Automatic annotation (TrEMBL):
GO BP of this protein: proteolysis
Family: Belongs to the peptidase M16 family.
Provenance organism: Rhodoferax saidenbachensis
Name assigned to this protein: Zinc protease
Swiss-Prot/TrEMBL keywords: Hydrolase, Protease
Molecular functions (GO terms): peptidase activity
Length: 457
């Protein structure tokens, strides 16, 4: 056979490498006569270079602007005529395109998607028009959102060398200077078969999907993936602070701590006698995040927002866990209650982590977090779209098939002592960045923005 099966798992997921070098992942689920077809490209804003930030996202928009055989806008119209829905998304680690269609229309969307992946083209004039749509998207979703602007500035301070310092949508000055050639060069460099994966989930037959994938994707040109140079983040050796002024109704504070993430190697070592220490800590940090704010009545909302004299109106904890590059961030955030300051919220947030470091967590908290995680993973499987999305994200990160089950197994082994240990180890000052929103007067007469005509997002 020209393509080789690489792996399979008991749930029926199978993975293949097509003749072109593209990966194919198929997961049958026959509960409804629908299918999800996704194309994942292992390229996102982290693969950009300074001066062209935002080009990955702009290119996502341009992928809807036609091929020699499909006019601009016809891709979406044809998918709709098939009874399907479609869209796309760009993140720091990846770009993705999807269609959810009746299962018997899978070949139609494979034909369409393989064509635009290989033959995307558009004029300079079309590019210039769509670039204005992207700029307006940035104005509406970032520049008019004080929290988004603060986190954008915070990322640029948290990371010095790591590529996560750039915003996905791009800096406005880079968008102003972007040319059609920038997007075309990015497309030619990264949109190659062995840097992409097709994921199909739903009411499908694996052999039939494999045959269709070879027909439409197997003959694509094969080129080497460009070398990715390491951009390792230097060790942070002291606290960083950012005061950010923007029109806003309330103040806000965010604290970002650099912590380990879950690597592909660490996940693969889950069956060994000596698991990777960093991945063990990553799972413990996941539990800590959930203990702090993963459910109603978790520690942060209970201690900071539900008391008789609350410190905050809103609080949260977030830990990313997975990404193509490290280090990861563990973020605490809060909005002060009336009469309270961001300094008081910051102190209260850190006090709750310090309390875990000192006294640990209860077995009841640990069990609740684990049970909720397991239930959440089960609920995700009710959606064919979510099944395909998880398979795609796992492929982007280099995780093997069965990673979701491995994560559950790892989670079940996390102990209260491990959670206490990471709370004590990673929440000091040296790897901390604090960003504080200082509210400025809001123009009450200003009308909300709307995306300009032509936007499809």
């Amino acid at each position: 056979m020209p393509s080789a099966a690489l792996a399979a798992e008991p749930a029926g997921v199978q993975q293949f490498t097509l003749k072109s070098g593209m990966t194919l992942i198929v997961k049958p689920d026959r509960r409804a006569p629908t299918a999800v077809h996704m194309l994942w490209v292992r390229v996102g804003s982290m693969d950009e270079v300074d001066g062209t930030s935002g080009v990955a996202h702009v290119l996502e928009h341009m992928m809807f602007k036609g091929t020699p055989t499909v006019k601009a806008g016809d891709f979406s119209r044809q998918v709709a005529a098939l009874g399907g829905r479609e869209n796309a998304f760009t993140a720091k680690d990846y770009t993705g395109f999807y269609q959810q269609i009746p299962a018997n229309k899978l070949e139609d969307v494979m034909r369409l998607e393989s064509d635009r992946f290989a033959n995307n083209q558009w004029s300079d004039e079309v590019f210039a028009k769509e670039l204005e749509v992207v700029k307006e998207e940035r104005r509406m979703r970032t520049e008019d959102n004080p929290h988004a602007r603060l986190h954008e500035a915070m990322d640029a301070m948290v990371y010095q060398a790591a590529p996560y310092r750039r915003p996905v949508v791009g800096w406005m000055s880079d968008l102003d200077a972007m040319t059609a050639r920038d997007a075309r060069d990015f497309y030619r460099r990264w949109y190659i078969a062995n840097n992409a994966a097709v994921v199909v989930a739903g009411d499908v037959d694996v052999d039939q999907v494999r045959a269709l994938a070879e027909k439409y994707y197997g003959g694509l040109p094969t080129r080497s993936t460009p070398a990715r140079k390491p951009r390792e983040e230097p060790e942070q050796l002291g606290q960083r602070r950012l005061d950010f002024k923007a029109p806003a109704e309330q103040a806000y504070v965010a604290l970002a701590f650099k912590v380990p993430g879950l690597s592909a190697e660490g996940l693969a070592a889950s069956g060994s006698n000596e698991p990777d220490a960093a991945s063990e800590e990553a799972m413990a940090l996941t539990v800590l995040s959930a203990v702090l704010s993963g459910y109603d009545g978790a520690r942060l909302p209970r201690a900071l927002t539900l008391e008789a004299n609350p410190v905050a109106d809103d609080v949260g904890a977030y830990y990313g866990l997975t990404a193509r590059s490290g280090p990861q961030l563990f973020t605490l955030s809060g909005v002060p209650a009336a009469g309270k300051t961001t300094a008081e919220v910051e102190k209260a947030l850190r006090a709750q982590v310090a309390l875990v470091a000192k006294d640990g967590i209860t077995e009841a908290e640990l069990a609740r977090v684990k049970n909720r995680w397991v239930a959440g993973e089960v609920y995700k499987q009710d959606s064919v779209f979510n099944q395909a999305r998880l398979l795609g994200v796992n492929w982007i990160n280099g995780y093997p098939l069965g990673s979701d089950q491995r994560l559950l197994e790892r989670l079940r082994t996390v102990t209260a002592a491990q959670v206490q240990a990471v709370a004590a180890k990673y929440f000091g000052d040296d790897a901390l960045t604090v960003a504080t929103l200082l509210p400025q007067p809001v123009d009450k007469t200003r009308k909300p923005r709307q995306l300009v005509a032509g936007s499809r997002h």
